[in-house]
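From the thread on structure requests for the teaching lab: each student submitted one protein with a one-line request. Submission from student K.M.:

"Model Transglutaminase domain-containing protein from Pseudoxanthomonas suwonensis, tokens only."
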Amino acid sequence: MPFRLGFQIAYRFDQPTPMVAMLDVHDSHALRLLSGPAVWTSPQVPLHRYRDRFGNTCTRLLAPAGLLVLRGDVLVREVGTGGLVHEGPRGPLPQEDRQFLQPSRHCEVRPLARYAQLRFADLPSDRTRVQAICAHVARAIEYDPDSTDFNRTALRALQEGRGLSRDFAHAAIALCRGVGIAARYCTGYPPATAGGLHPEPRFAAWIEAWVDGRWQAFDPRGGAACPERVPVARGRDAADVATSCTFGLCEPEGMEVWSLGVAGTEASGATVDVATLALAS
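Reply posted by the TA:
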């Protein structure tokens, strides 16, 4: 069953400003694309793509003075993988992925290591540990869309008991690393909905953990079960996968993200008013 993914983001610049954005569907899901990917700008400007150290597709552009709108739209094939990130033989954690065992900017491991060891180290398997960690994070943190703080770390999220999906992900990643399980941050589209256009003000966040010899997806906000997601970028934490990075001052005008089930594909021509929601990616 196909479903349609899309976004629309608006910024206002006082002067021409270099900018890097991560907006393309991740290459690991390229075979699922039925159309596109299509990312365009208004006004139209040249787009230059490259890969970062994590394999994410980055788009470099020069934003003109005034209003710049970025929009994307793609039709993808549904594949029920049960959270499995890639097929292939099971094996040990690749050398290049050992960085996902280390502390990172938003996922401090040392202050949470004892906390994690006492609660999860004695569980019988890595899968059980990750599931228990996600369930624990879902109970410990309350989702609060008004609690945006891009400097909040995993430790602070657990102490404050509130946050966005990125805070749930950071807390779960830090606890996984605290018991020796490699975990990485993912951002992308939320699960598809049916019956119409229901835009959200941000991309979703979840985690992937190295379990049973391969990367598998988990949703700490939902308590472990991870509905099928389509990633845009992966990294150590949210600092590695910012939706956009501008090399100069700008004023965010709005952002919306949508994911439509089969009933919603008829709405592919619908437009989204980007001024209705504040940017909070």
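TA comment: Helices lie at 110-120, 126-140, 154-160, 165-178. The first strand starts at residue 2 and ends at 13.
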